[in-house]
Structure formats: C-alpha cells, structure tokens
Write a structure and sequence with these properties.
about 35% helix, about 260 residues, 9 helices, alpha/beta, six-stranded mixed sheet, Lambda Exonuclease, Chain A, globular, three-stranded mixed sheet, single chain
Length: about 260
C-alpha cells in the first residue's frame, strides 16, 4: 500500500495533492516536500522489495505493504539531503567515457527459495576496476566513529548490491563507500582528514568494506525476506534498534511498548 501524504508533529495530515497547493508544511517549503516525495516514490517497490526496505525494520516493511499511510517530512529530510549529494555527483560522470561506468541504475534479482524480486539502485560501478561505489551523507560528529568501525548496515547494504550485480553478470571485486559531511569527504580504505581543525589536521585510515561471501549474503536475505513477506505481522524490532521507532510512520499501528 502506498504513502499517500504527509503528517506533522501535531498529527495534521495532508494528501500530496493538498500539499502541493500549500507554500510549506511542517516547516518545509513545497519544493523540498516535492523532492522528498519523488525520492520516496522512487525507492518504493510495490512489486517486490528494495534493499533499503529489507535492511530496516522488517515490521515497518511489512506494514508499508499492507496499509495506506502518512509520513512526517521532518523524519524524511535525509532523502532530500541525499538527493542533493547524488545530483551533484552525477555531473562528475563526464570524467568517464560512457562505456566505462554504470551510474544510477536499478538492478533486480530473485531471492533464492522465495518469489521476491529484490532490487537495488547502484550509485556507480567502474567497469575496468570492477568496483562498486556508494555515496552516503554523514553528520560531522559521526566521522571519528568511522575509523573504529564501519556501520554494519552499510556493509550489508553494499554487499547486497554486489550480490544483485553478480546475479546480473556484473562481477564486483571491490566496494568503496564515500561519506560526505559538510566539512569533508571520507572514503573507505583511504587516509582521510579526521576531527580537528584545518590548522592541526589529523589523518586516519577509514576501514575498507569487506566483501562477504555470496552464500553469507543469501542467508541474510532469505531470513529477512521471510520475515517481511509472512502472512502475519513480524515481531517488533530488537531493543538495541528501537531508536528507529522515533518518528516512524507506523508508530501508532505498531504500538511497541
């Protein structure tokens, strides 16, 4: 079932058609709301599942397919921020001949043992290097955490993209994630400027993205797909990840204590 409109912190709801007639809603101008809407629609997969949906809360992914819902644009703003980053970086594709890269293309692959068509939209694949590049935005105060450990979900997400590409006859020998903050850009496997100011720079190496075995990826996918596609609502998300419940569009429906 689709996202049909926006709601604000006070519970006021507007359909998309109503929102476009307003100058702003929930403090955001209509132009930003429209871009958020386009991003949310492009990632929704009514005929299957996207990698993003699969790696989030499985109960949320289940409910998105069962009920019409409104969402708060305040908690969707990251879609707009990510779109800004991707739009700028698309211009850099002219550095490569057209037959040397694949950019902003969605691929599909059937999850083994299910009838679920899983899809992922890759940011860039460099053909000669067999390298998958992924772009992320990141808060400045989270940069130093990257040196200690890459976020596990990002490792899973990019490896699932690699699995999908492999199923389409596109081999992946390397994965890189480029993190963009307001201050700098940080690339996995590279020495990057971390922390303090420009006058006393501190350089650290961001860990590389490990390539998981394809069998590992498939085991993860099969387990999560069965959770999302079951006939009854999946169990609530584990306690360590309840922070995802903050601002969730299905908070009232889900009713996790």
């Amino acid at each position: 079932m689709p996202l049909i409109g926006f709601k604000d912190d006070s519970g006021n709801q507007v359909t998309f058609e109503e929102a476009w007639k307003l100058k702003s809603f929930s403090g955001l101008p209509t132009e930003v709301l429209y871009r958020i809407y386009l991003s949310s629609v492009s990632d929704s997969r009514p005929d299957g599942l996207s990698v993003t949906e699969l790696l989030g809360c499985t109960r949320k992914a289940y409910l998105k397919k069962k009920v019409n819902y409104y969402d708060n644009p305040r908690f969707m703003y990251s879609l707009f921020r990510g779109t800004m980053c991707h739009s700028i970086l698309e211009d850099t594709n002219r550095l490569y001949p057209p037959n040397k890269i694949i950019s902003e293309k969605r691929y599909h692959r059937l999850v083994p043992g299910t009838n679920v068509n899983l899809s992922g939209k890759i940011d860039k694949y460099i053909i000669e290097d067999q390298c998958l590049d992924d772009y992320k935005t990141i808060a400045d105060d989270k940069i130093e955490d990257l040196v200690k450990k890459l976020p596990e979900d990002y490792v899973k997400q990019t490896n699932i993209y690699a699995w999908i590409l492999e199923g389409n006859g596109i081999p992946v020998k390397k994965i890189r994630i480029h993190f963009f903050s307001w201050k700098y850009c940080y690339t996995t496997g590279e020495k990057c400027l971390i922390g303090a100011g420009w006058y006393k720079p501190k350089w650290e190496v961001i860990p590389s993205v490990p390539l998981l075995r394809l069998s590992q990826v498939e085991d993860l996918l099969i387990h999560r797909v069965k959770d999302v596609m079951r006939s009854e609502i999946p169990p609530p998300i584990d306690a360590d990840n309840r922070w995802m419940c903050q601002g969730c569009a299905f908070k009232q429906t889900c009713k996790i204590e």
